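Hi L.,

You mentioned the student needs an example of a multi-chain input paired with its predicted structure. This one should do, with 232 residues in total across all chains.
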Amino acid sequence: DTGVSQDPRHKITKRGQNVTFRCDPISEHNRLYWYRQTLGQGPEFLTYFQNEAQLEKSRLLSDRFSAERPKGSFSTLEIQRTEQGDSAMYLCASSPGQAGRPYEQYFGPGTRLTVT
Amino acid sequence: AQKVTQAQTEISVVEKEDVTLDCVYETRDTTYYLFWYKQPPSGELVFLIRRNSFDEQNEISGRYSWNFQKSTSSFNFTITASQVVDSAVYFCALSEVQTGANNLFFGTGTRLTVIP
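Structure written out for the whole complex:
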């Protein structure tokens, strides 16, 4: 039984560099979510995909952030020109949900980003 | 607007004591779902329970039980006979059916420490 996986688990980068994270959801889950969690806070929604379509983005997702899910399977989240405020844990979750039926979301281990 | 409040930031109990974690939510949606997740020190969020707004029956699963009361907009979580392995941060979350994404709105979490 394979759960949601994320790569890398940790990333340290210098301010101004670009970074890319990958998420592999549970197979057959058509919904994929990205969240960001800062210290002492709960996760905050960034964006979600229904299959390969990105259907919603949070206001937290500035234009430096871009996410893709090219074939409706794995997803990538890229941050361009990183800033120290981007330091956080980036969580990916997948769900078998359909519209109007919020199924439970299964989370990956997260990618911890540190921007120096 | 939706909101989830977990007023207890940190709780410490001695092993075998019972403990209740509080969750109060706000939503304008008449149909919604409530969730509890556990985040152990390893960092991965673990799904515990999902309840929909039409089902106010309390639920018990082993040492865990949940009390959902729409009249007070609360969804409290009780751990009976706590164990050291219960030490974690617990998050309550809300998902509204009206939002197509069905993304989760999390509270700020309650850190539970079980002292042996």
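You could point out the following to them. The radius of gyration of chain B is 14 Å. DSSP finds no helices and twelve strands in chain B.

Best wishes,
N.
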